[in-house]
Design a protein that fits this description.
Helix content is about 80%, strand content about 0%.
């Protein structure tokens, strides 16, 4: 803000008073504000980029989970089909599996 005829300086000149000090202080504050706004703008752009990247990753995870869910559903269907068969056959498979795991663990511990 410039004001004409402010004392001895003549029209259009500033007087060596507190007014010019306030102008300098205002300009310094404006520069500080510009720097802060620029930093916020850069930060906002970085946040936007990160959000886009995270959304892309979430979409990929969603499709991976969908495919895994389909595979798991098919496996559960097979288990149900197996359980509908004779119970003695399933029990025999479970017993053989347990014995296999037991021998593998026994062999593994004995080697140590």
């Amino acid at each position: 803000m410039r004001r004409a005829n402010l004392g001895e300086g003549g029209p259009g000149h500033y007087v060596a008073s507190g007014y010019s000090v306030y102008e300098e202080e205002n300009e310094q504050l404006q520069e500080g504000l510009r720097a802060k706004v620029s930093a916020l703008r850069d930060l906002t752009i970085d946040i936007g980029t990160e959000v886009k990247y995270q959304n892309k990753m979430l979409d990929e995870m969603d499709s991976d989970f969908d495919s895994t869910g389909g595979l798991l559903g098919a496996t559960i269907g097979r288990v149900k089909q197996l359980s509908r068969g004779s119970q003695s056959k399933v029990l025999c498979y479970m017993l053989l599996f347990c014995l296999f795991v037991f021998f593998v663990l026994y062999w593994f511990i004995r080697l140590r």
